[in-house]
Amino acid sequence: MKLPPLKIGPYTAPVPLIQGGMSIRVSTSALAVPVARCGGIGTIGGSGLPVEELQADIRKAKSETDGVIAVNIMFAMQNFYNLVMGSIEAGVDMIITGAGFSRDIFKIGKDTNTPIVSIVSSPAFARLAEKLGAAAIIVEAKEAGGHLGTDQALRDLFPEIRKVVKKVPLIAAGGITNGFEMAEMMDKYGADGVQIATRFVLTEECSADDNFKQAMLKAQPEDVTLIRSPVGLPGRALKTPFVQRLAAAEEMKAKKCRWKCLKKCDHFYCISERLQKAYEGDLEEGLFFSGENVWKMKEILTVQEVFDQFVSQAESVYKEQK
User: Fold this and answer.
1) Going by fewer Cβ within 10 Å, which terminus of the chain is more open, N or C?
2) Crossing angle of helices 123-132/154-162, nearest 10°?
3) Are the C-beta atoms of residues 106 and 116 closer than 8 Å to each other?
4) What is the pLDDT of residues 113-153, one digit of tens each?
């Protein structure tokens, strides 16, 4: 059966799939545009970028597609407000935000008619986000890549949040690798759509260095681990030499911060620097955020091929909710 569209605020994505926003520069307009053209929601990772660079990329995306373009910005960023306002000024369709919780963002969304999508990992924050005016809520579980707000698995966490979110779309995220799992989350668990990130790194359009993609392709279950992040949350990443050194040291030598990118930073390494090194393909020094199930993915596809695969698999088993 045909999948239903995903409606967030005034925007409708024909395919109920959001491409996760990945920083730094892993998901730019180069990836977001083809996702939007395929009927999903294409997301630019805005965290860690200069406002002017982010604005230019949003304008580029909006000039190249009539599809839905979002930007993902971590609340933990020092320049969170400037990134949000700069994105809205540049014409982004919606703001997706997590890694902390902002109350003020909902007033900004209301004042500018910009849908705000909250990433949450607990029923309490989901209930609060809906109350404050979130246009949609993404439930991100422990299988996700990057910063994590829970140690609960998606299929345990999602039902608890589904009980408290009644008025806005609820989207499942974390560890979803194929269309059968997409249909499962929508059929069995009542998700209105899914967010997928790691699968989109392994696409031809993703601008991350090929070393990044090859490291993911070669990864086995034991190569994915949790790391300590200066953001103050655990993160899921590949077990690279840098991550192994980080795990072996009780404390890394604190350094004076050159970037000042976070509101609160533990200063034991610079996350912006390490994520940029990953984007550039530095296998020794980079921090390669990755979902728990990356080992299930064995090929680099085009974005169109990813959509074709997910949609055909999902629609082969999907049953419309009564």
Assistant:
1) C
2) 40
3) yes
4) 999 999 999 999 999 999 999 999 999 999 999 999 999 99
Contacts for 231-234: CB closer than 8 Å, 24+ residues apart: 231/74, 231/76, 231/99, 231/147, 231/262, 231/265, 231/271, 232/76, 232/264, 232/266, 233/99, 233/147, 233/148, 233/149, 234/147, 234/148
Contact present, 109 and 87 (Cβ < 8 Å): no
Query: pTM score, two decimals?
Result: 0.95
How far is Cα 50 from Cα 119, in angstroms, rounded to an integer?
Answer: 23
Task: Read off the tokens for 156.
Answer: 């345990």
Alpha-carbon distance of 270 to 18, in angstroms, equals 28
pLDDT per position as a tens digit, 99-120: 888 889 999 999 999 999 999 9
In three-state secondary structure terms, 241 is helix
Cis peptide before 24 (omega within 30 of 0): yes
Q: Give the pairing of strands 41-45 and 224-228.
A: unpaired
Q: At what angle do helices 51-64 and 80-89 cross, to 10 degrees?
A: 30
CATH of 6-207+298-317, one of 2.60.120.600, 3.20.20.70, 3.30.70.3090, 3.40.50.1970: 3.20.20.70
Taking a C-beta distance cutoff of 8 angstroms, is the pair 144, 175 a contact? yes
Residue type at 226 in one-letter notation: L
